[in-house]
Amino acid sequence: MGILKKVFNISDGEHKPVVFSFLYFFFLMSSYFILRPVRDEMGIQAGVENMQWLFTGTFIVMLLVVPAFGIVTKKVQRKKLISTIYVFFSLNILGFYFAFLLIDSTIIPVIFFIWLSVFNLFVVSIFWSFNSDIFTTNQAKRLYGPIAAGGSSGAIFGPAVTTFFINRIGLENLLLLSAFFLILSVIFVQKLLKFGKSNEVNFERKLNGDIWNGVKLLVKNPLLRQIGIFILLYTTISTFLYFEQAHIVSEVYSSAGDRTFYFGMRDLLVNVATLFIQFFLTGKVTRKWGITFCLILVPGISAFGFLSLGFTQSLYVLLIVQVIYRTLNHSIQRPAREVLFTSVTLEERYRSKNFIDTTLYRGGDAVSGWLFAGLSSVVVSLRTIALLTIPIALVWLMSGFRAGRLFTSKTIKFYGEIEKNRITKKSA
Asked: How far apart are CA 40 and CA 153, in angstroms?
């Protein structure tokens, strides 16, 4: 325990909840990342020429799920809500296991792809919301680092399981492992609930509010609008890279096992690199170079990535581009993006942010999917599409620069007003 206190600044009495939360996040992300390579394979099985329909279907389902989730959170107490949701998702995974085993239908991969694309947004969102109930703001500043490491560790362990067991136990049995890990996360939810009750956290209270209020706040706030534009451009670039991947991988590998192995190895490389950067570089880069630099770094690198794919459609070049793009997104851009929300109001942070992270995000996926399909119908070469993506990446870079400047000016103004009030009170 002395090592935890020295390295992570964990005080007495915090060891158990931190370990519980670490393990909760570890098993949660292990469950998801076991399934993620399977999802990518399902997308290819559904047909790379139909992937825009998969993204559109995900967006439509998200439009239905988000309001339904809001209704559930208003009616169910939080002490029952979280575990119930995870058990429900575990049963879903078991349902897919039997469906893949017993039903020979092209519709099952489509349903699985859409289901997991919705699943991953909710389970992580619920995790961080739950932790905000358990830990105070001061505790979160100290403890969220080691807790987040649990998720990064699970994101490494999950693809490792897929990579090394896909050809030994088969694709369907991976679903059983995923369901098992998700149930294990529920055990640590229960332990955290007991800890929270002992510290007088009120889990009896039901949640209030309407996510659609976030749309109004998004329109009014210039910074939120810029974040929304940034996210739409980010999803466009990510979707184009995903579609390029689907075409290249399907041409190189004819076997489902080989493709799933590739996806698992890709995720393993990304998550190992991400964990290293998170521990040793993220804080330093953010402090030394600032939020604006962190926001424009990935857009700039993505432009060079698509330039490379414009010259060659090599699988190795694709892998390098994907690993660099996704690693820097998770370790540098995503933390910087989350910092932007520290300068907005509580309602904007929870309502507008949720709308941006779910509905706007998946809407961007759907639109960019159809844009790629449209370009594919008039442009034969994937290399040409890669080159046409570069201007979008440059607009994304400018959006990140604008968001960073708005955040910086707002922060300077905020702290300037605090200092002014302090001087006024001292003079009085």
From this structure: 21
Between the alpha carbon of residue 237 and those of residues 156, 228, 301, the distances in Å are 24, 14, 11
Q: How many residues does the chain have?
A: 428
pLDDT, one tens digit per residue, over 394-407 is: 999 999 999 999 98
Rounded Cα distance between 47 and 100, Å, is: 17
Whole-number Å distance between alpha carbons of 386 and 190: 48
For residue 207, the 8-state DSSP code is P
Record the tokens describing residue 272, joined without a space: 């190992």
Amino acid at 14: E
Inter-residue contact 51 to 266 (CB < 8 Å): no
For residue 11, the tally of other CB atoms under 10 A from its CB is 12
Q: Is the dihedral of CA 347, 353, 354, 356 positive or negative?
A: positive
Residue 329 parent element (H or E): none
* Nearest Cα residue to 240 out of 415, 406, 55: 55
Helices (H) and strands (E) in the chain, counts: 17, 0
Q: How is residue 380 written in tokens?
A: 């034969």
For residue 415, what pLDDT is reported?
46
Low-confidence ranges of the chain (pLDDT < 50): 202, 415, 418-419, 422, 425
What separation in angstroms does the CA of 257 have from each of 159, 171, 262, 310, 318?
14, 8, 9, 28, 19
379: left (phi over 0), alpha (psi -120 to 50) or beta: beta
Cβ-Cβ contacts under 8 Å for 327 (sequence gap 6 or more): 270, 273, 274, 277
Start-to-end Cα distance in the chain: 48
Predicted confidence at residue 410, as pLDDT, reads: 78
What does pTM read for this prediction? 0.76
pLDDT one-digit tens code per residue, 209-258:
566 777 888 899 999 999 999 999 999 999 999 889 988 998 999 887 88
Q: How many Å apart are CA 105 and CA 108, to the nearest integer?
A: 6
Owner of token pair 């926001």: 295
pLDDT at position 141, please?
54
Q: Which of 266, 275, 247, 388 is nearest to 316 (CA)?
A: 266
